[in-house]
C-alpha cells in the first residue's frame, strides 16, 4: 500500500513545514515572553501569519484529495484545532493588544499540529471525507468548540498562576508580563461563551444530521457524553454565575479539568479509535481494509 | 581646556551636609556669575537638588583646581564649621563627563532610575545659559547628557516599574483590574500618603475616587484638588464598602479600621467580585484576617515593598546596558573635545591657503574678465578644498590618547609653515 503522502511531494513538504513553523513561532513567542528578546518580538507576528497561511494551504491541499470536502479523521481534526486556535489567538492579540499569552496558546497549537503530523504520516489515507451542509456545520462547530475549551483551559491556568503570585506576594515573571487578572477572566469567560455556542451548534447539527441520514448514533459514546457534560457546565457557568456570584478562581479549576479531560480523551481515541462516534464505523472498517486506496 | 566637577551628593555626604551646601536658584545664579566675572572660570554650572549640589566648571586659570572650587563653595555658603573638603567628590575632564552622564541617566540617583533628575539637570543648564555662564563646553556636555538620558530611557528599562509604595500600589491594582477608570475607589485618610496614592491613581485614569477622612474639610479639599468632588463622612463610609473595588487606607490609628466581619459582609453584598485593599498605614489599618476572604487582595506596605524590590532588581540588571550607552557617548564626547585642540590649526591652515589664493587671484584681477575671474575663483576654491581635505581629516581623526594631538598639530604646522598659535 503506497502512502498517500509519498505520492504527493507538495503535501509531504507542507506537513513538515507547518509543524516546523508552529515550533518556530512558539519559540519566538517564548523567547519574547521569557527573555524579552527583541528580534523575537519583531519576528513573532510575521511568523505567526506565515504559519497560519501555510496551514491553510496545507489543509486546502489535503482536502483537495477528497474533492475539497472536510476529512473526518481525528488527526486531521487535531490539525484543524491547531489552526483555529492560532486564528483565535490572532483575534485575541488584535482585540486585546496584548501579545503576552501567545506562547501558551501556540504551544498547544504546536503540540496538536505535531501529533496530527505524526499520525497523518503513519496513516494510509487522508481519512474519510464527508459532504453535506449539516455534517459540515457539525464538524466546524465541534472544532471551534474544542478550540474554545482549550483557550478557556489555558487562560484559566494563567489566571490561577497570576492569582497565586499576587496572593503570595511573588511578583515575578508572570506578574510582570501577563495581562491583568480582569483581562484573563474576560478572555476565559468569552472563550466559555463561544464554547457554549459552538457546542450547542455541534449538538443540534449532529442531531439534525443523524435524523436526516437515518443512521444510529451511540448514545454512550465517550466523546458524546463528554460533549454534553461540558455543554451543561459551560452553560451553567454562563447563566448561573451572574446570579450566584461564582468566582472565577474556583471555576478556573473546573475549566482546566474539562480541558485536560477532553484533550486526553481525544488523544486516547485518536490512538485507539481513529474514527468519530459510531457514524464512521463502516467507513473506518473499509478504510483499514484499504478500500479507500 | 579642562572641565572640573566637584560636589556633595548622597554618596559622599549625609543629608545635614547636603542641606548646608545646597544652593537656591538665586544663589546658583549669583555663584556662577561671581565665578565668571572674577575671571576664575570660562564657564560654570551648578546642579543643586535635594540629593546633590555639584559644580561643573571650565577653569580660566591654572590655580582653579578641584580643591580650590571646594573651598570656594564652602566659603560662599559660609559653612566651614560643618562642611569639609572630604565631603566632596571631584572629577576632571572625561571623568566629569561620565559623572554628568550617569547623573542625567539616573543611575547615580538615590533611587535608581528615578524620573526627576533629568529635568533638574535641564534646569541647571537653563540657569547657566540664562546668566551666560554656559559656553561651548558646558553646552555640548549638557546636550550630550540629555541625549544619553534619552537613549537610556528608550533603549533600557532602567526607569520601568514602580519604586515608591504609592506607585507600587497602583501597579498592583493594574495587575488585578485592567481599567482603573471603570473602578470605584475609596480613599480612607486624606494625609500625605493617601494623597500621593490617589494622585497616582488619577494619573492612571482612575476617575471615581471617593474620599473619607476624620476631618471632612480635608477630604473635601483633596477631592476638589483631584477633581472628583466625592466625599463620604468618616462615620458612615462602612455602609458603602461593598460599592468599592479598590480601598486605600492611610490613617494613623491604633486599632484596625476595617475588620474581617465587616469585609465579609461587604463581599457577600458584592457577590464575591474581587476587591483590593491597599493598607498604606503604619501601624496597619486593616485586619490581616481579611486576606483570607475569597477574592480579596489585601496588601500592606511590606507586600508592596516586594514589588519595589523586584523592580529595583530589574533596574539594576539594566545597568550594564546603561554603562555601554554612556561609554559610547563618552568616546564621541572625548573625540569632540580633542577636535577643540586642533581647531586653531585647522583655522590657521584654511586662512593660509585662502590668503595664497587671494594673492594669486589678485594678480589676474585686471588681466581677465569678471566672468573669467569668477570661474578661476571657483576653480581654486575646489582645488583648495581637495588639498585641505586630507590634512583636516587627519587632524580630526579619532585618537586613543590626547598625547598624539600635539604631534599631529606640529606635523601639519611644519609642513605648511604655519605660525605658532597665540597661547
Written description of the protein model:
- Chain A is an all-alpha fold and 293 residues long.
- Chain A is built from 11 helices and 2 strands, in the order H-H-E-H-H-E-H-H-H-H-H-H-H.
- Chain A has one domain (9-288).
- Chain A has a two-stranded antiparallel sheet.
- Mean pLDDT of chain A is 80; it is low at 278-293.
- Chain B is of the alpha/beta class.
- Chain B contains 14 helices and 10 strands.
- In chain B, the strands form 2 sheets. In chain B, strands 7-6-5-8-9-10 form a 6-stranded parallel sheet. In chain B, strands 2-3-1-4 form a 4-stranded antiparallel sheet, sandwiched between helices.
- In chain B, helix 4 (94-104) crosses helix 12, helix 5 runs antiparallel to helix 6 (136-155) and helix 7 crosses helix 11.
- The A-B interface holds A 162, 166-167, 169-172, 175-176, 179-183, 186, 244-247, 249 and B 172, 174-179, 270-274, 291, 294-295, 297, 299, 303, 306-307, 310, 314.
Amino acid at each position: 500500500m503506497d502512502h498517500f503522502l509519498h505520492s504527493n511531494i507538495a503535501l509531504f513538504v507542507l506537513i513538515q513545514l507547518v509543524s516546523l513553523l508552529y515550533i518556530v513561532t512558539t519559540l519566538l513567542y517564548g523567547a519574547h515572553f521569557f527573555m524579552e528578546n527583541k528580534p523575537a518580538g519583531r519576528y513573532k507576528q510575521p511568523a505567526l501569519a506565515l504559519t497560519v497561511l501555510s496551514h491553510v494551504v496545507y489543509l486546502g491541499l489535503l482536502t483537495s484529495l477528497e474533492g475539497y470536502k472536510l476529512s473526518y479523521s481525528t488527526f486531521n481534526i487535531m490539525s484543524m484545532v491547531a489552526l483555529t486556535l492560532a486564528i483565535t489567538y490572532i483575534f485575541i492579540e488584535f482585540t486585546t493588544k496584548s501579545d503576552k499569552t501567545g506562547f501558551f496558546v501556540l504551544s498547544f497549537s504546536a503540540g496538536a499540529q505535531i501529533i496530527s503530523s505524526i499520525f497523518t504520516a503513519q496513516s494510509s489515507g487522508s481519512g474519510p471525507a464527508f459532504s453535506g451542509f449539516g455534517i459540515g456545520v457539525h464538524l466546524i462547530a465541534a472544532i471551534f468548540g474544542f478550540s474554545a475549551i482549550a483557550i478557556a483551559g489555558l487562560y484559566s491556568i494563567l489566571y490561577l498562576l497570576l492569582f497565586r503570585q499576587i496572593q503570595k506576594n511573588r511578583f515575578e515573571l508572570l506578574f510582570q508580563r501577563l495581562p491583568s487578572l480582569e483581562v484573563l477572566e474576560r478572555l476565559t469567560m468569552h472563550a466559555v461563551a463561544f464554547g457554549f455556542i459552538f457546542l450547542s451548534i455541534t449538538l443540534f447539527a449532529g442531531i439534525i444530521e443523524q435524523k436526516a441520514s437515518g443512521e444510529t448514533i451511540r448514545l454512550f459514546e465517550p466523546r458524546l457524553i463528554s460533549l454534553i457534560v461540558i455543554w451543561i457546565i459551560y452553560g451553567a457557568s454562563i447563566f448561573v454565575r451572574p446570579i450566584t456570584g461564582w468566582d472565577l478562581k474556583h471555576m478556573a479549576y473546573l475549566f482546566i479539568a474539562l480541558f485536560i479531560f477532553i484533550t486526553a480523551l481525544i488523544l486516547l481515541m485518536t490512538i485507539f479509535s481513529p474514527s468519530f462516534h459510531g457514524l464512521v464505523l463502516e467507513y473506518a472498517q473499509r478504510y483499514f481494509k484499504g478500500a479507500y486506496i | 581646556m579642562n572641565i572640573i566637577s566637584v560636589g556633595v551628593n548622597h554618596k559622599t555626604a549625609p543629608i545635614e551636609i547636603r542641606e548646608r551646601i545646597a544652593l537656591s536658584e538665586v544663589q546658583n545664579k549669583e555663584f556662577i556669575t561671581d565665578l565668571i566675572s572674577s575671571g576664575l572660570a570660562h564657564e560654570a554650572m551648578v546642579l543643586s537638588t535635594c540629593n546633590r549640589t555639584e559644580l561643573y566648571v571650565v577653569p580660566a586659570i591654572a590655580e582653579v583646581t578641584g580643591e580650590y572650587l571646594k573651598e570656594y563653595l564652602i566659603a560662599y555658603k559660609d559653612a566651614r564649621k560643618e562642611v569639609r573638603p572630604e565631603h566632596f567628590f571631584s572629577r576632571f575632564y572625561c571623568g566629569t563627563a561620565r559623572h554628568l552622564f550617569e547623573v542625567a541617566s539616573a543611575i547615580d540617583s538615590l533611587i535608581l532610575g528615578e524620573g526627576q533628575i533629568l529635568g533638574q539637570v535641564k534646569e541647571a543648564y537653563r540657569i547657566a545659559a540664562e546668566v551666560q555662564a554656559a559656553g561651548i563646553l558646558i553646552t555640548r556636555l549638557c546636550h550630550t547628557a540629555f541625549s544619553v538620558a534619552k537613549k537610556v530611557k528608550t533603549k533600557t528599562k532602567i526607569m520601568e516599574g514602580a519604586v515608591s509604595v504609592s506607585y507600587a500600589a497602583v501597579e498592583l491594582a493594574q495587575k488585578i483590574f485592567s481599567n482603573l477608570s471603570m473602578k470605584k475607589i475609596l480613599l480612607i485618610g486624606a494625609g500625605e500618603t493617601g494623597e500621593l496614592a490617589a494622585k497616582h491613581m488619577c494619573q492612571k485614569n482612575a476617575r471615581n475616587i471617593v474620599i473619607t477622612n476624620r476631618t471632612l474639610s480635608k477630604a473635601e479639599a483633596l477631592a476638589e484638588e483631584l477633581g472628583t468632588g466625592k466625599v463620604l463622612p468618616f462615620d458612615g463610609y462602612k455602609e458603602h464598602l461593598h460599592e468599592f473595588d479598590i480601598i486605600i487606607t492611610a490613617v494613623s490609628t491604633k486599632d484596625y479600621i476595617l475588620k474581617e466581619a465587616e469585609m465579609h459582609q461587604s463581599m457577600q453584598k458584592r457577590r464575591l467580585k474581587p476587591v483590593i485593599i491597599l493598607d498604606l498605614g503604619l501601624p496597619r489599618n486593616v485586619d490581616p484576617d481579611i486576606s483570607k476572604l475569597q477574592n480579596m487582595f489585601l496588601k500592606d506596605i511590606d507586600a508592596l515593598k516586594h514589588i519595589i524590590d523586584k523592580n529595583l532588581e530589574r533596574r539594576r540588571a539594566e545597568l550594564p546596558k546603561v554603562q555601554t550607552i554612556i561609554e559610547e557617548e563618552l568616546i564621541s564626547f572625548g573625540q569632540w573635545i580633542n577636535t577643540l585642540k586642533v581647531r586653531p590649526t585647522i583655522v590657521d591652515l584654511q586662512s593660509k591657503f585662502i590668503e595664497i589664493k587671494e594673492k594669486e587671484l589678485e594678480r589676474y584681477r585686471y588681466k581677465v574678465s569678471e566672468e573669467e575671474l569668477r570661474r578661476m575663483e571657483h576653480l581654486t576654491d575646489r582645488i583648495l578644498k581637495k588639498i585641505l581635505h586630507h590634512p583636516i581629516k587627519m587632524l580630526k581623526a579619532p585618537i586613543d590618547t590626547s598625547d598624539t594631538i600635539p604631534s599631529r598639530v606640529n606635523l601639519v604646522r611644519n609642513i605648511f609653515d604655519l605660525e605658532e598659535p597665540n597661547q
